[in-house]
Design brief:
mainly alpha, two-stranded antiparallel sheet, globular
């Protein structure tokens, strides 16, 4: 792959969950998961050969959405990112964190992640 080619979502996100699987982990129905997506608390995307949208598995932790994810998604949206760009940004390594923003969120470093996300809007 050349430097100008964008990796596929499947190359960026290591694991995905169907809406049903996401609901099972959260104790919700697939329709309730869709509501979380509509509210911006989660992102679900079609990728690769999937017919239905799926949620990145790393967005969930201990039966809940990762702490700070919803706020980060809002900040990224305010910076003009669409859902695919939000997911790509969250899973892209950032040497200043270190690691990817989603890993930092999972490690309860949401303030650092949101500060970087806010800088994208300026």
């Amino acid at each position: 792959m050349s430097e100008t080619e964008t990796p596929t979502l499947d190359a960026v996100v290591p694991a995905w969950l169907s809406l049903r699987e996401t609901g099972e982990q959260l104790g919700l129905s697939p329709n309730q998961v869709r509501q979380l997506v509509r509210e911006g608390q989660l992102v679900a995307l079609r990728h690769g050969d999937t017919r239905e949208p799926e949620v990145p598995a790393d967005f969930l932790d201990a039966g809940q959405p990762v702490k700070g994810l919803a706020g980060t998604l809002t900040v990224l949206g305010d910076a003009g990112f669409d859902d695919e760009a939000k997911v790509r940004w969250l899973f892209t390594e950032d040497d200043s964190l270190p690691g990817s923003p989603v890993i930092a969120l999972r490690e309860n470093r949401g303030r650092e992640v949101r500060r970087r996300a806010q800088a994208l809007g300026f």
